[in-house]
C-alpha cells in the first residue's frame, strides 16, 4: 500500500494513473484502497455504484476513457504508461473520435516516439477501420521516423492494421520485408489471419505449407486459421492434409482445434468425420458441443441436433447465445413446441436475452410449418425492431406457401431496409409469376434494373492439384475452355 507522501510525487502519480487505467480494462473491476489520492476516490466511488459486480466490457472501456479526464482534472498529468493503457479502450469502443482526442494529447505531451504508444496507436486505427485517418495521422510515418519499424511487435501491428483496413498488398509487403529468418510464429499468424479476413482463403492455406518448409512449427492458432480457410473453400482434401499435420504436431487433443475440425468437416460435406472428431475429443467444451449441433443442423439432421442439445444440458454445460441460434435454426424439423420451449428458456433459465437471430429462427420455424399468420403475430409482439433476417425469414415462408398478399407487404419492408438485395426482388417476382401475374412480375424485374440491383450469377468450383478453379454460367474465361466444352459434348 502506498503512503500519502509517496502518492504526491509526480512520477508515482503518472505511473499510478497508467496502472489504474490498466486495472479498469481487466475483465472484472478490482479497486485498490488508494484513498490518499483524489483519483482513487473517483474510481472507488464508481465501483461502489456498480455494487461490486463485474462491469460490462463496453462500460469499462468508456469508463477508462472518462478516467483520463478525471486524472487530468485531479492534477495528475498522463504519461506514456497512461496512453498505452487507454488506447486499447479507444480501439474497443470503435469510435474514432476518442482515438483522435487521445492522439492530440499524445502529440501535445510528446509521447509519439514511445514504442508501446506507437504500437497501441496502430492497433487503435486498425480496430476503428479507418485507414484514411491512419494515413492522415501518419502512424506508419511516425513509426518509421522514430525507428520503431525494427520492433517486431510494432511491425506485426502495422500488418494487422493494413489487413483490417482492406489493404492486403500493403500488409503482405510488410510481411515479406521481414525475411524468412526473422519471422517467428506471430507474423505468420498475422499473415494467415489477414488472408482469411480479406477472403484470400487459398493463399492462407498456401502460406501454411510455406511455413512448414521453414524451421518453425505452426501453433494451434495458426492451424485453426488454416482450417477456417479450407472451410470457406469447402476443400476436404486440403482440410484432411491439415488434420494430418495437426495429429503429427500433437494438437489433436486441443479443444480449440477440435471445434475447428468439426466445423471444417461439416462444411466440406463429411458429417461422419465431424462426429468422429467430436467423439475422439476427451475434454469437450461448449464450443465443441455447439460446433457439432451446428454441423447436424447444416446437414438437415435437426432431430439429432436437438438430442445433442439435451445431452449437452445433461452433461452440465450452459448454452450461450450462439448455441441457441444453432438449435433454434432447426426449423425443418417442424417441432414447434420444442422450439418455443427452448426460446422461452433462454431468458428465464439461462439469462440470455434473445436477439434478432433467435427471433428470425422462430419465424422460420413457424413459417416452414405453414403458420404464416402466427409468424406475423410473433413479429408484431417482438420487443425489438425486426431487422432484415426476421422479415427475410417470413418472406421465404410466403414464397414457399404462395401467400402473395403477405409477401407484398413483407417485401415492401425489405426494400426499405436493404434496397440492394436482389434476392428479395427475385422472390417477389417469382410469387407474382406463380399466380399468373406476369406484368407485375416483369415490373419487379424492371425495378431491379432501374435501381441498379444485379443478381450475382451462381458458380461452381473444382480443385485440381491443390488449385481451385471457379466457373460461372456461360463462363469462357478459363484457358482450357474449348477443351472443356469438347469434353462436355463427348459426355452428352
Automatic annotation (TrEMBL):
Q: Which residues form the signal peptide?
A: 1-26
Q: Which UniProt keywords apply?
A: Repeat, Signal
GO terms (molecular function) for this protein are:
RNA binding
Example GO BP? RNA modification
| Domain of life of the organism encoding this protein | Eukaryota
Q: Where would I find the PPR repeats?
A: 285-319
Please provide an example of a Pfam family that matches this protein in its UniProt record: E_motif
The protein's name: Transcription factor PIF3-like
Amino acid at each position: 500500500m502506498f503512503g500519502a507522501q509517496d502518492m504526491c510525487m509526480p512520477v508515482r502519480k503518472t505511473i499510478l494513473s497508467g496502472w489504474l487505467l490498466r486495472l479498469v480494462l481487466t475483465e472484472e473491476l478490482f479497486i485498490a484502497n488508494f484513498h490518499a489520492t483524489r483519483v482513487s476516490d473517483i474510481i472507488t466511488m464508481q465501483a461502489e455504484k456498480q455494487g461490486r459486480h463485474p462491469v460490462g466490457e463496453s462500460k469499462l472501456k468508456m469508463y477508462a476513457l472518462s478516467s483520463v479526464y478525471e486524472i487530468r482534472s485531479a492534477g495528475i498529468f498522463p504519461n506514456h504508461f497512461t496512453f498505452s493503457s487507454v488506447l486499447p479502450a479507444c480501439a474497443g469502443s470503435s469510435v474514432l473520435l476518442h482515438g483522435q482526442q487521445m492522439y492530440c494529447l499524445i502529440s501535445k505531451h510528446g509521447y509519439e516516439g514511445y514504442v508501446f504508444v506507437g504500437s497501441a496507436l496502430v492497433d487503435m486505427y486498425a480496430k476503428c477501420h479507418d485507414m484514411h485517418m491512419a494515413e492522415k495521422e501518419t502512424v506508419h510515418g511516425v513509426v518509421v521516423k522514430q525507428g520503431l519499424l525494427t520492433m517486431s511487435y510494432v511491425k506485426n501491428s502495422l500488418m494487422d492494421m493494413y489487413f483490417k483496413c482492406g489493404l492486403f498488398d500493403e500488409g503482405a509487403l510488410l510481411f515479406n520485408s521481414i525475411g524468412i529468418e526473422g519471422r517467428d510464429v506471430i507474423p505468420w499468424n498475422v499473415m494467415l489471419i489477414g488472408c482469411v479476413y480479406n477472403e484470400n482463403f487459398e493463399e492462407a492455406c498456401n502460406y501454411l505449407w510455406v511455413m512448414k518448409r521453414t524451421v518453425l512449427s505452426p501453433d494451434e492458432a495458426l492451424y485453426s486459421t488454416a482450417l477456417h480457410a479450407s472451410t470457406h473453400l469447402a476443400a476436404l482434401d486440403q482440410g484432411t492434409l491439415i488434420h494430418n499435420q495437426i495429429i503429427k504436431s500433437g494438437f489433436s487433443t486441443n479443444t480449440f482445434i477440435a471445434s475447428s475440425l468439426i466445423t471444417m468437416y461439416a462444411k466440406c460435406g463429411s458429417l461422419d468425420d465431424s462426429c468422429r472428431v467430436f467423439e475422439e475429443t476427451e475434454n469437450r467444451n461448449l464450443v465443441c458441443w455447439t460446433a457439432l449441433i451446428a454441423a447436424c443442423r447444416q446437414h438437415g439432421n435437426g432431430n439429432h441436433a436437438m438430442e445433442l442439445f439435451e445431452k449437452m444440458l445433461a452433461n452440465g454445460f450452459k448454452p450461450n447465445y450462439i448455441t441457441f441460434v444453432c438449435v433454434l435454426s432447426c426449423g425443418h424439423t417442424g417441432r414447434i413446441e420444442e422450439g418455443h420451449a427452448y426460446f422461452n428458456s433462454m431468458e428465464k433459465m439461462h439469462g440470455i436475452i434473445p436477439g434478432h437471430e433467435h427471433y428470425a429462427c422462430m419465424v422460420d420455424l413457424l413459417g416452414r410449418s405453414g403458420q404464416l399468420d402466427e409468424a406475423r403475430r410473433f413479429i408484431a409482439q417482438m420487443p425489438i425492431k425486426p431487422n432484415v433476417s426476421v422479415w427475410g425469414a417470413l418472406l421465404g415462408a410466403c414464397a414457399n406457401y404462395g401467400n402473395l398478399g403477405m409477401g407484398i407487404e413483407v417485401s415492401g419492408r425489405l426494400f426499405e431496409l436493404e434496397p440492394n438485395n436482389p434476392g428479395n426482388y427475385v422472390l417477389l417476382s417469382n410469387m407474382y409469376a406463380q399466380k399468373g401475374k406476369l406484368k407485375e412480375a416483369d415490373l419487379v424485374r424492371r425495378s431491379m434494373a432501374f435501381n441498379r440491383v444485379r443478381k450475382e450469377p451462381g458458380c461452381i468450383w473444382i480443385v485440381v492439384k491443390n488449385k481451385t478453379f471457379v466457373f460461372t454460367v456461360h463462363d469462357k474465361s478459363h484457358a482450357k475452355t474449348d477443351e472443356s466444352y469438347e469434353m462436355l459434348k463427348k459426355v452428352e
